[in-house]
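Task 17 of the worksheet. Students: predict the tertiary structure of the chain below and write it out as structure tokens. Keep your answer in the requested format; marks are given for formatting as well as content.
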Amino acid sequence: MGTTQLETVPEPKYWHLRTVLTEALDSEFSVGEILPNERDLAARFGVARATLRQALEQLELEGRLQRRRGVGTTVAPPRMGVSVGTAQHTWPGGPHDAWQALDCALEVPPAAVAETLVTGRDEPVHVVRRSRVSHGQPVAAELLYVPAESVPDLSAIDAPSGAARARAVLRELQRLELERQENAVELGSARADDAKELDRLPGAPVLVVTTRCIARGRTAALSVATYRADTCRLTFGDSGGVEIHHGPERRAS
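Model answer:
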């Protein structure tokens, strides 16, 4: 059989601009510094604003830039290392859990979640809302779906709603013997609710970590955690918690 040689594809304009902007970030701007507005940047580099936006979106996806409401586009600090390794193999709400319980309600989950939990499509489950903050900065938002059969004694607890109800659900989960966890990570876009929680713009890149907690041979709880892709770097190891990897005082790199 013969071989087919692929034609050379020219580099897109936005990608070339992304390279030029990267060099400018390294040499001219410090972490946290606000970039000029799009009109001025487009004029400086002699490109259309649509091309500039593509390049800025790519740099945001790579964690080099942040877009903040009421502030503009700033140079991002180094990403935070977030471990999703073996140290995380405990029930949510355990003694070393970095998440904060915010609320809990009985809701019918999305169809894909109901299928994973093997519950009826119209069967409500406990939906625990939690947040994770590091160094005063929102890092992630979580929805934890817990079927009623995983916490059968919950009705006996006097915690009708809110954070108290969420903590009660988490305490009841501890009664089960956790067999294992299964993690999946994918890139996504921030929904309106997640964007508000994470101080991001809707549609901003996020990392979605889905965790199945297996007990008694079934999915006893399902966590869908949304992390800021511009500030978080997921690591797979034995170290738990969120740490900012500080380096010497330097310009953005």
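Marker's comment: The helical segments are 13-28, 38-45, 49-61, 111-117, 162-173, 192-198. The chain has a mean pLDDT of 82.
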